[in-house]
Amino acid sequence: MRIRRVEVQAFGRLENRCSGDAPMGNLVVIEGRNEAGKSTLFEFLSSMLYGLYPTALDRHPYAPWTGAEMGGTAWIGLGEEEVAVTRRLLSSPIGTLTREGRVESIRNDTLDFVDHVPRKVFREVFALSLAELAGLDDAGWEAVEDRILGRLGATDLRPAREVAAELENEARSLWRPDRRGSPKVRLLDEEIRAVSARRPIARGRAEERRAATDRLNELERLLESARSTRADEQRRLERLRQLVPLRRERTAIRRLRERAGDPARLSGLPADPVAELARRRERVVEAEAAVAAARDEIAGLNVDVDAFTMTHRVLLEREPEIDALRARTAGAEPRRIRLAAIEQEIRGLDRRLDDEADRLTWRGSQDPTAVASIPAAPLAEAWTRWTAARRELAEGAPAPPPAPPGSPALRRLGVAALGLALSVLLVAVVALAGAPALADLPPLAAGALGAFAIAVAAGAGALLQIDRRTRRAARRAHTAASEHLARRREAEEVARLVLESLLTQAGLELDPALEDLPERVRRCRQWVRDRTERHLEAESLRHELAALDRDADAFDEIAESEVGPAALGNLLQERLREARDRSIAARKAESRIAHLDTVVSDAEARLAAAREGLDTVLERLRPFDPDPDTAAEEAARALEHAREADSREERLRAELPDLQVLEQEIDRAEAAGEPWLTDPDPVAALQAAVDRRTDTIEGWLAEGTALQERIAANRDAETLDELEGELARLRDERARLRREHDRLWVLSQLVDDADRKVRELHQPEILRLAGEHLVPLTEGRYDRLEVADDRRRSLQVSGPAAPEPLEVASPLSTGTREQIYLALRMALVRHLDEGGTRLPLFLDEILVNWDPHRRDRGLDLIEVMARERQVFLFTCHPKMVELMVARGASHWRLGPA
User: Fold this and answer.
1) What are 87's strand-pairing partners?
2) Range 621-653 burial, b when 16+ CB lie within 10 A, else e
3) If 870 and its partner were Cys, which of 364, 523, 550, 840 is the partner (CB 3.0–4.6 Å)?
4) Is 214 exposed, middle or buried (0-12, 13-18, 19+ CB in 10 A)?
């Protein structure tokens, strides 16, 4: 078995504590500081298995400190099966066992799968604390050996060898064959010799008493004769004292019978006719009321039976489907919330896509989802190339070559100078030609003008030549720059065409103004991808919720209400709880109705019997008076007279056993006319004669008293008979003590033999298992435990470290003795529940004082034990918790509630 989960409602200091949702494993470490409730938890688990004791809450040592209702639940695994045990203690203990959905009442009984180990043995053997290990000193090992090997862990039994020793010592205190000590038989022999020495003195006193006794006997004979005579007179006196009052009583009885009337009409009347008549009437009324009450209760119970309708039956039959639906509806609301959140996310993604699409340039109608078709990596690469080409085109294109400094002015100056030279030259030529207009110009001046014109023309030609060379150099530079620009433009065009071909797939146009176009496209692609994923998830959720709605619709008829699935689960749960309550109420009502049918039958039978009895009483009272009440009173008076007469006769018969003889004597005396019948006081005359006889007797009695005083003077002294009786008593006591000695000696041998047989039956297996545990604990230093074959039966250990057996009590170290004790306790636990359910083992701080090396060996043994049974280790040390958790232990911390 395995305790999987624990819920403590209230138990001692623990309240509202739970081991958690995860089931506990075979190895469990319970962490809690001192006074945290570790011992209380062990008591709680023991009570879950064996019941709550004491069964009165006010006397229970673990009554809740807060005054809450005491109880809790433990879920226990039995192979593949799990059962839930719930116990509570109110005015009396209540317990239930839930198994495969069925709830059984177990009251306060022990669970059937743990009853092979008694409750007391479980508490004393299956729980090991630090206090037990701490008490293992040399003087205590004999008790340890007796407890584990002799009493199999029980503490309420005394060791057999102690009992045998006490019986033997008690036998020796009665008698022993040697002369040692002072046994009781030897003291009795001395007392017998002392009594025998007092016999001669007692014999003399006996002779003196004999003489006084002879005279006393003579007086007794005289007294006997006088007393006989007085007795005859007293008998006559007593006879008259009987006959005279008896005669008067007979007369009174005769008058009473005359008043009672004919005895025939009194026959069959009840003792108290008035009370009997009232009682019969009351019985009729009570029976009628009982019949009516039972029928009314049956009518009320039928309401409970009818309240359990077919709908309730269907609900109970479909309880597994309802539980499944509730489990699904419990998760429906989170799904609906998730669906709403997804739809909100989709709307947000749509808005983002629309906003982003508005910022892009489209060839036709915009379709943001088409952006997802653009491959991200090629787009980023094409965009990078295009932007680089544009940047190179913008930054690296050569400007047209500038004109040389002053070149336009020089060209204009040369042209102007050339024009001037031609003009001056023309004037000089005209003047030299004798033109009338220039006739006044001297020829020298005209020649000078001609020379001047030629000089100016030469200068103008030089200027124009310089201008031509400059313009040729500028044309060559401009051509080179144009060719470089053409190549940049071609690269930009190619990059732009590649980029446009990618954008055209989604219906986009290239907008140079959008410098973050790839990032925008990437965001749109991610949003489209997210939107698609959300749509798929939303569709899956809608499908699940639609399926749940369809399944929930199937329960609308039995739910008798059209509500949503979430509310339907709760409504069906309420309806199912109502169906269970009505089912229980109907079963109880049907059981009660079956009982009440019997009650009605019995009540109707009682009613018929009561009516018959009433009719019988009325019939018997009718001779006294037509009115029943008056007849009852008349009958009561007649019965009273008859009873008084009978009582007086009965009293006479009781007081006078020879009444018939006395009555016959009175009849004879009346027939004979004896004198005492007419004597006014015959008793007084006879009493005077008796008094005189008494005076004589008293004189003789005085003499006898004097003799008795003389005899009594020696009465306190020992008599021979007393001594003989004392001797006989002492001899009988001596014989009894010898027999008691023999009995005690036999008993000591029987107890010793029985102890040996019990040890032979159980010890070999316990010692073998303990030796197996001792090997890992001591790392093979010790591997065998045995009991010495002597009266002490001391426990011995051996192994490679001790070729010769050593007594466990000494000289082994405390740590080694603690290891041996732990091995023995583990072996005893395995031996006690062998063949039955393996019960859990509880260990409280048993390794806290061990050094790390020994502690690891102890933890190894505990881990091995946990493979076949559940082991709970209680500790307040975090380091121990870490070590246990590292070995796979479940962890439960008993912290503040």
Assistant:
1) 72, 95
2) beebeeebeebbbbbbebbebbebbeeebeebe
3) 840
4) exposed
Lowest mean pLDDT among 563-572, 803-812, 856-865, 872-881: 563-572
Distances (CA, A) of 605 to 288, 591, 602: 11, 21, 5
Nearest-angstrom CA–CA distance, 436 and 428: 13
- pLDDT 10s digits, 215-271: 888 888 888 888 888 888 788 778 777 777 777 787 888 888 787 777 777 777 777
Sign of CA dihedral 447, 449, 455, 458: negative
Burial code of 517-529, b = ≥16 C-beta within 10 A, e = fewer?
bbebbbebbebbe
Q: Give the tokens for residue 454.
A: 């030629």
Q: Taking the alpha carbons of 335, 341, 342, 347 in that order, is the dihedral positive or negative?
A: positive
Alpha helices in 505-516 (DSSP H): none
Q: 759-779, pLDDT tens digit by residue?
A: 666 677 888 888 888 888 888
Contact 130, 845 (CB under 8 A): yes
β partners of residue 30: 874, 892
SS3 10: strand
* Whether residue 412 has pLDDT greater than 50: yes
- Backbone dihedral region for residue 839 (phi beyond 0: left; psi -120 to 50: alpha; all else: beta): beta
Q: Which residues contact 468 (CB under 8 A, 6 or more apart)?
A: none
Which residue blocks in 61-135 are alpha helix, DSSP H? Answer: 119-125, 130-134
Residue by residue, DSSP assigns 364-396 as: SS--GGGGGGS-HHHHHHHHHHHHHHHHHHHHH
**pLDDT 10s digits, 470-516:** 777 777 777 777 777 777 777 777 877 877 777 777 777 777 777 77
Question: Is 147's pLDDT higher than 60?
Answer: no
From the list 828, 829, 821, the residue with the least C-alpha distance to 854 is 821
Largest CA distance in the chain: 247
At a CB cut-off of 8 Å and minimum separation 6, what does 127 contact?
A: 42, 841, 842, 843, 844
pLDDT at position 889, please? Answer: 94
Q: Which of 8-22, 190-204, 523-537 has the lowest mean pLDDT?
A: 190-204
Q: Is the pLDDT of residue 870 over 50?
A: yes
Of the chain, the end-to-end C-alpha distance in Å amounts to: 28
Q: Is the dihedral of CA 851, 856, 862, 865 positive or negative?
A: negative
Nearest to 852 by CA among 826, 875, 879: 879
CA distances 757 to 163, 601, 763, 816, Å, are 15, 64, 10, 29
| Residues 415, 409: Cα–Cα separation, whole Å | 10
Which residues contact residue 571 at a Cβ distance below 8 angstroms, ignoring those fewer than 6 apart?
Answer: 559, 561, 563
Residue 564: the pLDDT is 60
At CA 660, angle to CA 658 and CA 661, rounded to 5? 65
Q: Which range, 97-106, 150-159, 641-650, has the best average confidence (pLDDT)?
A: 97-106
For residue range 24-33, list pLDDT tens digits in order. 999 999 998 8
Beta bridge partners of 807: 796
User: What whole-number distance in Å separates Cα of residue 890 and Cα of residue 755?
Assistant: 42
Residue 127 has which token pair? Answer: 């729980």
CA proximity to 841, closest of 856, 817, 861: 861
- What are the counts of helices (DSSP H) followed by strands (DSSP E) for the chain? 24, 14
**Which tokens is 270 given?**
């009840």
pTM higher than 0.70, yes or no? Answer: no
pLDDT for 404 equals 46
CA 871 – CA 877 distance, rounded (Å): 17
Contacts of 798 by beta carbon, 8 Å cutoff, 6+ apart: 782, 783, 784, 786, 804, 805, 806
Contact predicate 71/95, CB 8 Å? no
